[in-house]
Amino acid sequence: MARTGRPGLSHEQKTELWQRWKAGETLSDIGRALGKHAASVFGVVAAKGGFAPVPRSRKPGSLSLDEREEISRGLVEGQSFQQLGRALGRAVSTISREVGGNGGRQAYRATRADEQALDRARRPKPCQLAFNPALCKLVAGKLTNQWSPQQIAGWLKAQFPGDPSMNISHETIYKSLFIQARGVLKKELLAHLRSRRIMRRGRTSTTAGQTRGQIIDAVSIRDRPAENEDRAIPGHWEGDLMSGSKNTHIATLVERSSRFVILVKVNGKDSDSVVGALIRQVQFLPHGLMGSLTWDRGTEMAYHRKFTVATDVSVYFCDPQSPWQRGSNENTNGLLRQYFPKGTDLSVYTQHDLDQVALRLNSRPRKTLGFQTPADTFKRAVALTG
């Protein structure tokens, strides 16, 4: 059956993806480098729990393709396993096992046998917990008691010195949690980890130079001019990111006076992607219709100064954990869930799709506007400023 949907990543792209991931790059940065959406990168990384797959290789001493072709030719000529073994310098049992495991004398094909051998080499090996139910039960119990994988690994080493069967590394515990395909530790145990994350960064990764957790020169909402608080004066907006499944997002902008909504497609949650998309969208507004923008403390607006320089719009930031300071935006995001339920993959929507949803919302009468529509109220504001 022909493959449908988005094309996947090539082997070379996946290799580069994992190199960048271990170097600490964001999903969006990796996506831009590979020419893929951040959600596609997230899907690959999440499937492996954040752990780069270990490259599989043939075991030393295994049969080569050339040797298998010699076996195939010898079988056609009617040679015995002893003759083939002597010609190749291999044990008779090696030849017998090779031929018997790949269809027997009549069906043996060198290329197919070599491909199957390589597939077996690439197949993930069962982890230690799968072989030791007692150890698995003990680890699960400690996780339930909020022990960290590092604490469990250290405690086991102290409790069972010299017993390899009861010792396990914290990395193996993390892998068994984050890679559910292993079928060892239940996914529910993730809730007992302090970080509550769903994947793990490699030990060699770094976040140096990234803007995580910091917004440089952020101006507090408390320093916002008094006129910005007055909803009678148009031109002051609130903004936020709405999240969907697979690490997808859209930016939502709401004008405080008219409740007029603008939805903006973003290619990632990083500040470059968000700020760039906002700049492009805001430039379509009539001059003077955006004087300020109030955002929460999300680092997607870390590059707010770049936004201000490009648009001449001042940016203010809410206090931490204070969504009510952007009440219009929070309420609008709730209304938008009618169109984008939680768990929706937001990457499938084009900017045109988002414009159509915004049009529907802006055309609905609002009680807070005396049952006028945001679109009509916004038009009057445009007329006043024009």
Key words describing this protein structure:
alpha/beta, about 5% strand, 5 strands, 18 helices, disordered N terminus
Protein model, in words:
The chain is an alpha/beta fold. It has four domains: 11-47; 65-122; 128-192, no CATH class; 221-385, Ribonuclease H-like superfamily/Ribonuclease H (Nucleotidyltransferase, domain 5, 2-Layer Sandwich), CATH 3.30.420. Helix content is 44%, strand content 7%. The protein is built from 18 helices and five strands. It has helices at residues 11-22, 27-34, 38-47, 65-76, 81-88, 92-100, 104-107, 110-122, 128-131, 133-144, 149-159, 170-178, 226-229, 271-282, 304-311, 327-336, 351-362, 374-385; strands at residues 236-243, 249-255, 261-265, 292-295, 314-317. A five-stranded mixed sheet has the order 3-2-1-4-5, with helices on both faces. β4 (292-295), α15 (304-311) and β5 form a beta-alpha-beta unit. α2 (27-34) crosses α3 (38-47) and α14 (271-282) runs parallel beside α15.
Q: What's this, in brief?
A:
With 386 residues, the protein is α/β, with parallel strands linked by helices.
